[in-house]
Amino acid sequence: MRIEVDTHTHTVASAHAYSTVLEMAKSASDAGLKALAITDHSTGGSDAPHIWYFHNLTKAIPRKLFDVNMIFGVECDVIDYNGNLALASSELERLDWVVASIHGNYNMAGGTIDDYTNAYIGMAQNPYVDVIGHPIYPAYKPDYEKVVPVFKEYGKFVEINESAIPRSVKTINNALELIGVCKKYRVPVIVNSDAHFCMSVGKFDNALKMLKDNNYPEELIVNTKWENIKAHIESKKGKVFE
Ligand SMILES: [Zn+2]
Ligand SMILES: [Zn+2]
């Protein structure tokens, strides 16, 4: 199985990542990817760029670097248990791609499973969100049986995040449970590196093994085909790529 697009990566614009856009694109090319999304953290956290970074993102950088199609997006923080996001709709609509994720900031820690279930349902209902980012973090685990059908209803891709899987036994167990529920409801997943350094771009070994070992249908892994991602972006933004 081959993944053609890595749709969740960070550059030096996120203060805890270590490569430039050019280095990330070169690594994507070396890994044989057809496209790469740059998704630095949304503003508000101390590790995130200024809002002007996002205003300029789709204008300043060529659409193709080293023959890799460049997708310009954000990993946007969820800021409350209703699933509201750190960036306004007017900011999100400038971008090609939105991964929405819960992290330990914005007072999102310490909630109940019902709080996180509610937050994930709110994220799913936001029309600007493309990907539900790493919903396997143990501290913010929702009820998968309740949220996964909602992800499907609103056309969201559920992320199987390579970086998050090996963190603990709990994240592995959550990933296994999530894959099982996605398989049951035939919900498309997207496999992402969440690379914070260029050498991790296009590396998905843990995620792919987990999907294969659990007989997850390959045709539901959306980023095995660049055409799937291209069509998704262009359906909302018009023609973007060559
Ligand atoms: Zn994240
Ligand atoms: Zn990330």
Structure commentary:
The chain is 35% helix and 15% strand. With 242 residues, it is α/β, with parallel strands linked by helices. The protein has one domain (5-237): Metal-dependent hydrolases (TIM Barrel), CATH 3.20.20. Strands 1, 2, 3, 4, 5, 6, 7 and 8 form an eight-stranded mixed sheet that branches. Strand 5 (97-101), helix 4 and strand 6 form a beta-alpha-beta unit. The two termini are 25 Å apart. The mean pLDDT is 96. One zinc ion binds at residues 75, 101, 103, 133-134.
**What is the count of β-strands?**
8
CATH architecture: Alpha-Beta Barrel
End-to-end CA span:
25 Å
CATH superfamily: Metal-dependent hydrolases
How many alpha or pi helices? 8
Average of pLDDT: 96
Shape: globular
The distinct bound ligands, ions and cofactors come out as: zinc ion
Portion in beta strands: 15-25%
Q: What count of structural domains? A: 1
Question: What is the CATH first-level class name?
Answer: Alpha Beta
Q: What kind of sheet is the major sheet?
A: 8 strands, mixed
Question: What does the secondary structure layout of this molecule look like, with pairings?
Answer:
Layout (H helix, E strand, L loop, with lengths): L4 E2 L14 H10 L4 E7 L9 H10 L3 E2 L2 E10 L11 H4 L4 E5 L11 H13 L5 E2 L11 H10 L3 E5 L7 H17 L3 E4 L12 H9 L12 H12 L5
Parallel strand pairs: 1-2, 2-4, 4-5, 5-6, 6-7, 7-8
Antiparallel strand pairs: 3-4
Helix pairs in contact: 4-5, 5-6
The structure holds zinc ion (2 copies).
The site of one zinc ion has 5 residues, from loops.
